[in-house]
Amino acid sequence: MKMNWIRIIAIIVLVVIAIVLIIAIPVTCSQKRKASSSTNIVKTPEQIERENTVELIKFYVEKGEYDRAMNLLDGLLIKNTQDAEALAMMDEILALKAGASLSDFPRYAGTININTGDLERAISKMQRTLEQQNEQSVLAAKTQAEAAEKALEVARQQEEARHEEQRRKEQVAADEAKRKAYEAELAKKNKALQEQIAKVNDELSQGKAQLGMGNLNAALKHFDNVKKILPESEKEFCASKLAEISNTLYESSITQTDPVQKSKLIDSAVLYANEAIEKNATEPAAHYVKGKVFADKKQYAQALDSLTKAAQNDGKNYLYFYELGKVQYMMNKYSEARASFETTTKLNPQFEPAFYNMALTLTKLGRTEDALVASRKAVALKSDYTRAHLQIAQILAGKNDYAGAINAYESVLRYESTNANALRGLGQLYAERQQYEKAEENFKKALAFSSEDAATNYNLSTVLYNQNKANEALKYARNAAMAQPKNAMFQYNFGLIAEGCADIETAIVQYSNALKINSRHLNANINLGKIYLDSNQSDVALKFLQTAVSVDNRNFEAVNNLASCYRDRGEFDKAIENYKVALVLDEGNLVTKMNLANTYVAAEKFDEAKTAYTEILQKDKTNKESYFELAKVCMVLKNNSLAEGYLLKLQELDANYKKAEVEALLAGLAGGVDAK
């Protein structure tokens, strides 16, 4: 009976336990699900960005790179000056700089895994924040620079247009003299025709006068009257007068600023040109006007047809051949253009624009010596012809005639001190000759007139970097990269200079940008791989360095860094293989030789290590590390007397070099014997 009660009590206890478990287990599971759910909350991009930035800060703090960490903290505090965690970390870094121990601060655990993709976005966003703060001042500077450059270009074009206009007027005067002679001869036929010609000329003169006063409608009425009183029996005369009206209207359109009036003048000019051609299909002036109108509209095929007819029908008018040559050049018909410009110079040896354009065409044909001769003829006729001086400079620079090219660029600047092309050219020449200070001076002057020019910003950044002015160069490298975001070279250059300024975050982003444009960019892969290698992230570094070697397996830096990456990953055979290749590329590199020797030790290939250390000492008898490591290898190989000799030699070289370790090794060797 007693046993039954005991059994009953035991059953009751088991039931109670079961009930408790039934209740407790769902609660616990619910709590776990709740905890799991809380960790799977979707985070905003801003939260992810901040977390990755904080992780990177911790990483730098643990490596003792406090300045980099502080730079990132500045970025966080710019966005939120009350960021308690950032403020606390800043205080901790200041304490560490003052001598505190990392163990005093529990947040630095030494097990950080950085998401590089999110990090790039975080850094890019910080960059944008900082850039936006300067946006207004940059925009103002850009606007001023663009306005100045535009004004200079307009002034240059106006000067050249005035010069060509003067030449046109001279040709018009010559044509007018010929026309008057023709009309005088024609008037001899009879008195009635003589009077009719006089009326036509009077009406035409009144139309020109009205046009000169800006009265287009009144002018057109007079020109219309001319058509009515033309002697229909004299087709050639009628065509010449209609062509004269056409040319007058076209010339007036050139200086017209009102787009409505300009269009009306051009349409009227074409109308009269067509009517002239109807009267006489070989009327050259009419074909010339039509050709000019087509060329202005970039309708080059039609322009070519009209100007060819003008030149064919009047082989003495140099302007017809000149304008024909320009159209042929625009259509890439360089041989034909050269012939047209040569004809122009024969008809008018004093017309320097023809020599300049002939030089351009000869350059396209690869005839640089002839182009140089033509350019020099242009400046001989017009000493302040800056474009021709520029062309001379560019040709001489291509021939590596630096002195001549510099002199030509300086000739440009004598007449036009603000010519950005000449300043850029001078800067490039000085940079190629490694005269970086002069290059810097000229690039900065060029940017004063064209601040957004990407190539000049890039070039200036490189010459500053070559003068160890990385901090100053950074601004210009950034400008170039932002101006041409699809230019891999500019993105890489920005990264390189950022790395030179110890701004590793920006360097990572920019090298990555370069690789997005060109995944096989050699130096971007090398540098990015090296950054991750130095940050003990050999897994990430490996893919970049493998790509670099696949791009150029004869590049010492790529192969050497890949070897170091394999060594860090414990893949010693691959490391040894690549170190050997690196030493074939640069056999005198003792650092690489030392890395190879150390890798042999790590791979427990002690005989090979001994040989490598010995070879180093044959080239550098003062290499203390080699003596020390060679002694240890000899001890492993049981060659104690040789090991002792190397250690004693090391003490002779530097008694304080790893003093305690050397003494400990010598003590261990005392009384030892060599292996047989």
How much helicity do the residues have?
Answer: over 70%
Structural class, from secondary structure content? mainly alpha
DSSP strand tally: 0
The description of the largest β-sheet is: none
Give the radius of gyration: 42 Å
Query: What fraction strand?
Result: under 5%
The number of helices is 33
Poorly predicted regions are: 1-6, 8-41, 111-117, 119-123, 125-149
* Spatial gap, N to C terminus: 87 Å
Query: Oligomeric status of the shown chains?
Result: single chain
Query: What is the residue-mean pLDDT, rounded to a whole number?
Result: 84
Which word captures the global form?
A: elongated
Summarize the structure.
80% of the residues lie in helices and 0% in strands. It is mainly α and 676 residues long.
Structural summary, described in words:
The structure is a single chain. The protein has 676 residues and is mainly α. The protein contains 33 helices and no strands. The chain has helices at residues 2-39, 45-62, 66-79, 84-97, 116-133, 135-187, 191-212, 216-229, 235-254, 259-279, 284-296, 300-313, 318-330, 334-347, 352-364, 368-381, 386-398, 402-415, 420-432, 436-449, 454-466, 470-483, 488-500, 504-517, 522-534, 538-551, 556-568, 572-585, 590-602, 606-619, 624-636, 640-653, 659-669. Helix 11 runs antiparallel to helix 12, helix 17 runs parallel beside helix 19 (420-432) and helix 25 packs parallel to helix 27 (556-568). It is elongated. The chain starts with a helix and ends in a 7-residue tail after the last helix.
